[in-house]
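Treating backbone geometry as a discrete language has practical consequences that deserve illustration. Part of our work consisted of pairing the sequence of a single chain with a tokenised description of its backbone. What the numbers capture is local backbone geometry rather than side-chain detail. For completeness, the protein is quoted in full, as a sequence line and a line of structure tokens:
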Amino acid sequence: MKSKFLFPAWCAWLGYFMAVPGFVLGYLNIINRYEIPGFGFKMREKTTIIQSAFENFTNELAIFLVVIGLILIAFSKTKREDELTAKIRINSLYWGVTIYYIFYILGLTFSVTVGEIPFFGDHLVELNIFTPLLIFISRYYYLTYFSKERYLIGESKFLPNKPYRSVGKIVSLISIIIMVIGVANKNNELLDSLVSFSYLGLIIGLMLWAFSQQKINDEMVMQQRLESLQLAVYFNYGILLLATLLIYSIDYLFVLMFAQVSLLLFFIIRMEFVSYKNNKVISQFEGELSHEK
């Protein structure tokens, strides 16, 4: 098992040169309300309650620097790319995505049932953008350079195929149906409250679906998981960067809500497609064997 879809090794240094200034600029923008003078242009004739006539792109620049920088740090080749490196990478990716979604589910549950957490509630958008990558990078470098047991790393522990995979599919489907009905009936207060819980249910269902084992869970499947998870991260952050560049105000928040599930959706769709192709090849091979007999 080897990692694919990686950037050249020198890109990691470029990532640091982008991420560090990006974090500094983001900190100044969020905490001190700093904006680069004149860095923007007039978007509309006059200012409204939720939209400014002149859009300053300091925040967008910080997001681009941080996200692209962290991706280059996370997915650049090391001097030695072997099976151990691939195991460390999928272990770290699994940790990064799983821990992020666990915290996100807990935070979303708290905000729906109790109320927003001070500071975190106001800056949840910014924190959600880079948190998965930070967890992944921290785990990866810890296992690579600080863990004495890195050579003993086994396969990542996924949930058993039964019943979690089926439960995940059912919960995801029910949640999507409730969300569609809720959006179609905006004036129904009961459905409006159910939409928030169904969004939470969708994330939980997709997690159970994504992180439960296939019926066959060999080295080839683990390789495909690693590739699918990497491509899902690229796809997810591609959506975020494109939305950051082209979409503003309330519409941007809706894109971010979709981005919370797009990583899991892309991963599931690719794994299901790969699994379908594998089963098709196996069926053809078995058919040829039986025909020869």
